[in-house]
UniProtKB/TrEMBL annotation:
Pfam families: DinB_2. This is Damage-inducible protein DinB. SUPFAM superfamilies: DinB/YfiT-like putative metalloenzymes. It comes from the Bacteria. InterPro entries: DinB-like, DinB/YfiT-like. Residues 24-146 form the DinB-like domain.
């Protein structure tokens, strides 16, 4: 199996193809606005904050890959990447939609990239192959947290295919 095929498989497992953990798109399907902003304790992040964090890093990579560094998201520090927009149902829906869009755009880039493009440095980043590998692992880690928060609220019962 070549590196692109392996990464495409990992990338899909984070969004819409079930593997060892449920994919984020499936997990978020039934999460209500109230569940998205809920925190068991103030020191933890909410589901929505975690999605914003994942979106921040994926969107930043996409913008940098496309050479649109003026449009990349900005944050003072990692904690700032969890920041929510105004807490409205519409913004929750838009955050989910934007995350799916950005994730799929990165998937398209990976699928179309020539071998040399996979290893070409991206401004402010390492190569596409290393960044996507790292982001897939990062996504899996936080998807686990989102699954846990969802289960705590009864939002994920019976979603596994096995």
């Amino acid at each position: 199996m070549d590196v692109r095929t392996l990464l495409l498989q990992q990338w899909a497992s984070c969004l819409d193809q079930e593997d060892w953990f449920p994919p984020l798109e499936k997990v978020l399907e039934d999460v209500t606005f109230e569940q998205a902003i809920w925190k068991p304790v103030d020191s933890m992040n909410s589901i929505w904050e975690l999605v914003c964090h994942l979106l921040f890093y994926e969107k930043r990579l996409l913008m940098r890959f496309l050479g649109e560094t003026d449009n990349e998201p900005q944050a003072e520090d990692n904690k700032s990447t969890f920041r929510l927009p105004a807490e409205t149902l519409q913004n929750w829906k838009e955050t989910k939609q934007e995350y799916v869009y950005v994730h799929r755009e990165l998937e398209k880039i990976l699928a179309k990239s020539e071998e040399e493009d996979l290893y070409r440095p991206i401004p402010g980043e390492r190569s596409l192959v290393l960044e996507l590998k790292s982001l897939a692992m990062h996504d899996a880690y936080h998807i686990g947290q989102i699954v846990f928060l969802s289960k705590m609220q009864g939002a994920l019962a019976g979603k596994r295919s096995f």
